[in-house]
Amino acid sequence: MSHPSNRNRFLPRPHIWLWMLVFVTYAAAAATVVINAMDAPYRDLQRTPAGVQASQEDRAIGAAQMVALYRARSGAPFSALPAGTTLEVTWPDGSSETLRIVDPLSPTGVVPVKGTQREKR
Predict the structure, then answer these.
(1) C-alpha to C-alpha distance for 45 and 114, rounded to whole angstroms
(2) 68-86 pLDDT per residue, tens
């Protein structure tokens, strides 16, 4: 028969699970960036589409411009917004959608996430 203290030594303590949950939640929240196309400096971009009614290609190009500007303004432009990062974009007409970075090296490496387009409220 094993001693009860030996059994407790190999089971994780409850507070470890709490810290793991906090870490995973923080990591997921840190992977989403919010960009409002009407805020400076994004409103001065030349080809920012009007909103979710624009073609998917135009929205992807507009989002790629905003991502490039975000990276240029960050302290670490080559590590900012890696692949898998999601963006919550509010377009100039007030509509919004979620986009995902699929290829940080491509000028068109940002794609809209289907089903996340919302008209202006």
Answers:
(1) 25
(2) 888 888 877 767 888 888 9
CA angle 40, 41, 43 (to 5 degrees): 75
DSSP state at residue 31: T
Percent of the chain's residues with pLDDT above 70 = 69
With tokens 């089971």, the residue in question is: 11
**Sole residue written with tokens 């073609």:** 55
Question: What stretch of H or E contains 36?
Answer: strand 32-36
- For CA atoms 74, 112, 116, 37, give the dihedral sign: positive
| Pair of tokens at residue 69 | 């500007």
* Backbone torsions φ then ψ of 40, nearest 5 degrees: -70, 145
pTM: 0.67
Distance, in Å, from the CA atom of 23 to the CA atom of 29, rounded to the nearest integer, reads: 10
Q: How far apart are CA 101 and CA 105, in angstroms?
A: 10
Residue whose structure tokens are 């509509």: 95
- 91-102 pLDDT, tens digit per residue, is 888 899 999 988
DSSP state of 96: E
